[in-house]
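Morning F.,

Quick status update on the modeling queue. The single chain you submitted on Monday has been processed. Sequence for confirmation:
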Amino acid sequence: MHTLYLALGSNLGNRRGNLQAALDALSPQIHWRRSSPIYETPPWGFTDQPAFLNMVVEAETDLEPAELLKTLKDIEARVGRTPSFRYGPRQIDLDILFYDDLVVDTPELGIPHPRLAERAFVLQPLADLNPGLSHPQLKYTVNELLKNVDTSGMKLFDPPCRLEWGKRTYVMGIINVTPDSFSGDGLLGAAASVEAAVEQARRFVAAGADILDIGGESTRPGSEPVDADEEMGRILPIIRALSMAGVNAIISVDTYKAETAEAALRAGAHWVNDVWGLRADPRLAEIAARRGATVVLMHNRSTPTNVEIQERLGGRYVGMDYTDLLNDVCNELRESAAQAKAAGIPDHQIILDPGIGFGKTVEQNLELVNRLDEIRALGYPVLLGPSRKGFIGYTLNLPPEQRLQGTAAAVAVGIARGADIVRVHDVEAMVQVARMTDAITRGR
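Structure tokens below.
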């Protein structure tokens, strides 16, 4: 197999959709392993045209260079590229940047790309993937070449995807596409569920949500699992719709299945929120690494035999034995993080979640919230998900729909103990709680 770096660009029509269509069309002859962030860049060569979206992918193939070029031209035609003048606007542009360390110089094809060293819109995303990659002719690394071009006109197309930890608390809004959500907010079965989900997402973002977590399988105590096909059927249309609508938020997929995660990332998701911390399907780590996705790794010791359900209050876990609660949770989260790193996921794309409500008793959940700073001391950002959970209901003797104030208390204490993200149902109220708590604890 040969290692490739391919540049993708689009400035006509649905630019992001064109990039995604081209990525999908690479398979099966070209297997792409990792992708850079998407950048919006000014036009190059001919300036009187719309801005481009540009990205670079690392891939592998058995195709020889001439066959590869033909395949890429065929993909351009399928995505909708039509003949234009040199450097003119286009639906899609696919260029071979590097092919192993091969040098090709023919009228039809130049490898490495002849103008690579002049183009910031290629060098910046290439540096995101492999800054130390050496140009076989120029004998400079990508990072060294990047220093000689002007990147001032470039900007990340999805700026919310890069969060600044410690400056404020980020809010993740829950969008359940299930018929059996414990909180009663599932959208599956609602009239026009895709439209309802997009409308809910817009309300959440308008209220201050930074992240939208889309889930197609209930994880409440005692719930029935669904297979990947059912899960994908529920969530993929919504993720695609949110991506195409340009909703200004990070899109997270709540799944522990590698197959679902890969499809969701192809559809436009940015993060994978794995409630089993890579323990249920280890293949998910490799997929997230290849796609450049951030992962949320949750601690989970859920077992059906330890579930107790009361009709009014719902499910809770009983008889959960830990040698030392915080030490056990921290050690198992370290193992999940090590597994992610071994697969190629960098530290800055790993977030930890102590797993409130997942295999812990009411008392253990209360202790975890109060000692969240010990999870934060592991060195990773921390997500806290106490919203409407059973430990609140059993503490206050309240059903899920009456747990707003209890959730607010857990969110405030969690932020004070170091939570970077809070995952909530009641976005508008919890944004206010987060902002007030930040004003007290962070001075902002």
